[in-house]
Amino acid sequence: MYALSEFVIDFSDVPLNPFGTRDEQKLEAALIVGTLYSPEVVELLKDPVERTTWIDSLAVAAAAYAKYKAGKPVSKIAEEVGRSEHTIRAHIQGKTKAGKLIISTYEKLKAGTLRVAVPFVSGAPQVEAKTSELERKVQELTREKESLLAKVSELEKEVENLRRQLEACREESGKLSRVVEAVKSRLQALEEIKQLLSELA
Fold first, then answer.
1. What residues contact 42, with CB distance under 8 A and at least 6 apart?
2. For a surface tag, which of 20, 56, 172, 199 has the fewest beta carbons within 10 Å of its beta carbon?
3. Integer-rounded Cα radius of gyration of the chain
4. In this predicted structure, what is the pLDDT of residue 86?
5. What is the mean pLDDT of the segment spanning 30-47?
């Protein structure tokens, strides 16, 4: 049995005054999505002739407004968006239809009243099959991760063991060096004694 469900998009972490490119992109995306799913725009997009133009205008207006809220000057926004300064001003001042819609979405976002619910059908065979496949992949990845962690643990133990062996070798090497030095010292003393004996003979 199929059931109509909906997925509500969370806009709680969208920055109202972006700082940096990533924040700009998050605000821009929220403005586009929030506007595209508004009842007014849904009606406008039903016209196949105007659909492409509307989507392009909304995308430009959203990008311009997000950059404007980031504190960028109009000249910089125009350069980055690829539109004239006149067009950018018209959008961010709400003098265009697209600009008005984007600003309206921003105000809803600011007030915390922006809600976008995307409907989808749950219980459909293809959805259930995809879900099962994803769950299986997650399980496989989990097992693979656990296996890799076990191998890492084993390697860490081997490395620690080798480290101890290396320290032991260094210690033995130090002892050997001291023995060699002692032998050299005694050989030198022996040579000196032999020299004295030869002089006394």
1. 36
2. 199
3. 37
4. 94
5. 82
Nearest residue to 11 via CA among 78, 75, 80, 105: 105
Q: Which two tokens stand for residue 158?
A: 């081997």
**Distance from C-alpha of 106 to C-alpha of 26, rounded to nearest angstrom:** 12
Burial category of 108 from C-beta neighbours within 10 Å (exposed 0-12, middle 13-18, buried 19 and up): middle
* 97-111 helix and 48-69 helix, angle to the nearest 10 degrees: 50
Stretch (H or E) spanning 4 = strand 3-8
> What is the three-class DSSP state of 5?
strand
Residue with tokens 């205008």: 57
Single out the residue of 57, 56, 69 nearest to residue 25, CA to CA: 69
**How many whole angstroms separate alpha carbon 178 and alpha carbon 95?**
90
With CA atoms as reference, report the closest residue to 102 among 43, 14, 27.
27
- Least Cα distance to 54 among 82, 96, 106 occurs for 96
